[in-house]
Specification:
Largest sheet: 7 strands, mixed
Low-confidence stretches: none
Distance between the termini: 59 Å
Strand content: 15-25%
CATH topology of the largest domain: Nucleotidyltransferase, domain 5
Shape: globular
Number of helices: 18
CATH architecture of the largest domain: 2-Layer Sandwich
Length: 513
Amino acid sequence: MDYVIGVDIGTQSTKALLVDRNGVIVARHSAGYQLDTPKPFWAEQWPSVWFDAVLECIARCVDAARERNIATSAIRAVCVSSLYGGSGIPVDKDIRPLHPCLIWMDRRATAQVDWVREHVDLGRLLAITGNGVDSYYGFTKMLWLRDHRSDVWANTRYFLPPNAYVIYLLTGEIAVDHSSAGNIGGVYDVERRDWSGTTLDMLGIPATMMPERLVESTDIVGGLLSQWTVRLGLPPGTPIIAGGVDAAVATFAAGATRAGQHVAMIGTSMCWGYINQQVDARHGLVSMPHVFNGRRDMYVFGGAITAGASVTWYREQFCHAETVAAQTLPHGDPHVLLEEAAARVPAGADGVTFLPYLMGERSPIWDPKASGAFVGLNLVHTRAHLYRAVLEGVAFALKHNIEAGRQGAQSLDDRLIVVGGAAHSDLWMQIIADVTGYPVFTIEQEVEAAMGAALLAAVGAGLVSHAVAQGGWSTLVERARPNAHHLAKYAERFKVYVDLYPALKPFMHRLQV
């Protein structure tokens, strides 16, 4: 039997899976870490944190293989996917990091956004790249480094996405997959599937800072260097596959490989995306080549910056009693107690609406100065009401993106697949079904991007055909169907949700410190 390892570098942890050529999970491991947030709206990470986690996860999976008497030579490939790395890692001529990576969550480049809007032909930029202008995009973060870290800028040889940097350390080869390149926005020509010399010139970013080699997500970047064989237990030359951006890889893991299929990945953030053959930046969503059939298909998505992060924030700040009480229970999970209480609250949280804009917001409003809010509070409301309102608020953000996506989608399937940590919550899955109107399906195996990376590795190593990969390895299970009564109530509440942001926007901006 042949095996592969799929690795996913996430915002707060790295996960790896060892699977056989049929997608059966043999071993798994994860390693956690903390994001660096030195100032409000800043979010960055030194790449050594990611690399150490990748080494640990791969090594533990290989150890598990040995314990099962699996020869390490039977592990035929490793694929690395990663979070959207924003600016990417600025590295010098010796590929040494010069500065932390400004990740997707970082919103510091607001002045650079203003500069682009004032000095660049926006119509041309949008038409070439299929993407808009916002501090979310990596190219604006690059401009921030140019304006505020002149020493870093002067010594930067390349900007490398997280997975590309890790793969370089493993193989000595530099390559960027097309999904990661496209997600930078502003510098990638979606029609030509190449860096855009035109927009790079318009932005004042040297084309030489973009790595020359662009590859498909299933391509072999290089073989494992012999220096890692003892640490990892893998043979030298083990193929390392390019991978891609985690949201697209998780979408692939859920079996989304044809136009119209759509998947919501709800973890720290929320990404809802669908497969399409064309893009239009005017609809306010993000576009990149898909990680499967990327020469033909685009992955088009929108997202909320703080989805699961909103839930974590609420629990940590306001639910100490539940956290303490859960310690005495077998499951030890305060969310179980919070959901039991929230499930007794009527749909609509008795009039409370939550705006999940705790780090500004991405699509479709694209406002780094947006802020979170509970609206509709009165003395009858409890922590359970507010907890339910948080779950509903993220579901409304999901629907907001779906409505924007409908404008450019060739079609959308009549079911919604949800992956990520939110899929553990029966209550949240029902709320999402009731808000969006879609039956909700989740992956039975409870794995997402790491499984997608493993499948990409199997395709890249020639263990799985494209035809088999198109169906995926994952088994989907139906979790919730829309409740007609709740659907009508949420339709009215969604109108309130959409109207709240423009009404509160002036005050949100005035309250910025």
